[in-house]
Hints:
α2 (92-104) runs antiparallel to α3. Strands 1-6-7-8-9-16-13-12-11 form a nine-stranded antiparallel sheet. By secondary structure, the protein is an alpha+beta fold. Keywords: Hydrolase. Residues 696-765 form the Alpha fucosidase A-like C-terminal domain. It comes from Pontibacter silvestris.
Amino acid sequence: MYQIKPSVKQLLLSLLFIFLAFHINGQHNQQPSQHDLNLWFSKPASEWNEALPVGNGRLGAMVFGGIASERFQLNEETVWTGKPADFVNPEAREALPEVRALLFSGKYAEAQELAKEKMMGDKSVSSSYQTLGDLLLNFGEISQNITNYKRELDLNTAVAKVSYRAGNVSFTREIFSSASDQALVVRLSADKPASLSFNLTLTRPGNKAKVEVMGNEIIMSEHVGDGVGVRMVARVKVLHDGGTVQVAGDSIAVHKGNTVTLLLTAATDYRGDNPLITSEAQLTAAVKKDYDALKADHIADYQKYFNRVNFDLGATNASKAPTDERLAAMKNGTTDPQLIKLYYQFGRYLLISSSRPGGLPANLQGIWADGLTPPWSADYHININIQMNYWPAEVTNLSEMHLPFLNFLNALRPDARKTAQEMYGINGTVAHFTSDPWFFTETYGEPQWAMWPMGMAWCAQHSWEHYLFTEDKKYLKDLGYPVMKDAAEFCANWLVEDPKTKKLVSGPSISPENTFKTPNGEIATMVMGPTMDHMIMRDLLQNTIEASKVLNVDAALRKHLEGILQRLTPTKVGSDGRIMEWTEEFEEPEPGHRHISHLFALHPGRQITKQKSPELMEAARKTLNYRLSHGGGHTGWSRAWIINFFARLHDGEAAYENLVALLQKSTLPNLFDTHPPFQIDGNFGATAGITEMLLQSHAGEVELLPALPEAWKQGYIHGIVARGGFEVDIDWEDGALKQVNILSKLGNNCRIRYRDQVITLRTKKGKRYKLNAKLQQL
């Protein structure tokens, strides 16, 4: 700090600065500080799980930050093998009554074998998401000593950076993927002229891509999947200030440049476009801007979403260390509240970067996947994973990022209607455990995960949730309600009467991926009437009824669905006080199973709430504790779901404990979630869970700080969103609410709860309401 003799003028200026800083920091949607929102590392990535992701929703890269060589592993969201295909088992429809009869008579193993033989489809056309390829920079041998190395990702600007000093020259690389210009931008610079020399190549695994080098541009193309997939084109252009650029075989050589900008574009024919023409048009447009304009436009586009939410829990000295060291320290018990803030905003960053309007939804790895065969094909698992990807969309003020998923559901409808009719002889729409961008809804594989017809029904919850936050009636009429109505029609026709209870049950079906022991000791998975099915159906039917009222349509259907709800099998509590997962209290071979499906009604459903069903809340708590005591939560996404469960149970300490466990046990050095291996759903689920700890609105009230843990003594979260169109700023200190500021975006009445205090605000659209800890207006 400079030692300057103070003067009156300097003191006045200092006081003015302090006042302005305090005033600005107290405003709504204050801007996050740079150092608070940096992932940074003191060394290059040694493997993919240490690299840093950038993305514009469609085009992504993983930044390794090497010194002698740099690798940018590339992805474009539509680089998929496969094609549309039908593979319903032609014997399924006829086998359905027989399978049901076997299950009703307790012959579970026989029913499972029959379903495997007669109901599983033959998916002969394989499909997988794939890498676009690699952009490689080779700088040659580095003989100088390397100092001041830093590799970072600034969440505030969505710009990655690599910097170091080699000998007496400081080098910098900046990398971002621009949504406004649809290009990956890499800027290389040095603090001394003529210091940049390297070779540039574009490559792709499999050695089947065609690579052409012309002047200062490389074009790489391939028909992926041995011709059963999309045609893709990637092209990179080298723009240099100083030095020379020349073709060197299949690469470009840059010699003694001052600054170099690389522009990379990519396209496929997934939507019928010519990828050669599309990628060229993207590149031509990007070249017209200088680097500063590209960067400024990118940041402005990104920040209009990211800056909607600001979150702070304070910081400790732990925040001064590199991110990987902080994560390691947390595994050893170090408290690092700022790392939780960073992790939370990283989740929002990933959603903005992997799911933009007009594109495909985020897959199992968002958009970032290496190689030609990523785990589980990086597809769209719809038995929780893709749903979890979008749990944070509405609550963290990223409603637009929800749209790719909502449009994906609409695109599934034609095949889903065909599958329902051909496989089951039922009207409406059905989808099973997974899908892909070719929109298949048939099922295949083992009944343990495949004989589950609730994929579309669960996904349709998102169609209603988007409306609850936005109250966009045009969206509901044109997109949301048709998805819900079709799924509800299937469910209404799918249910059958249980001969013993005379209640309606779903089946044949499973509790996703779990098994049970039959009375004679066999391991089985299918029943008539798994609890989760009924919870999903109850949610869907209620939502469809409400949507039909909003739109004033389908009165007859509404009455029909109301009648079905009266007959639907209720949620049952077993003799040990836990919610039953199946129709009977079967012994569980895996009592710590990763799926906790029979708590759907607690989260993401809203049937089990403190306000309406305290007895089921207690049964849910026992269910959750039992799972955890037997090793549950051992995968990242499962642990993330558990955070949300405990938040809904108003148990801040347990929610926090599981958040810490997620960071300690299921988080990779670059903060990616691991199943293992990497799956992005845990990142999204945890960001949603942290929000649920601080704000809930699923039970007809805007509830403030419902699960605030002791560890978060003071802090704030500004800009999160409640159902009914309320944007909420919450400040707290000494573990209690300090004040809340609510923006009414739609003008609805707002019922607000904090602990045992409840008030109702009659709001006006566009007006803000500031309340103190006693919920009195200020």
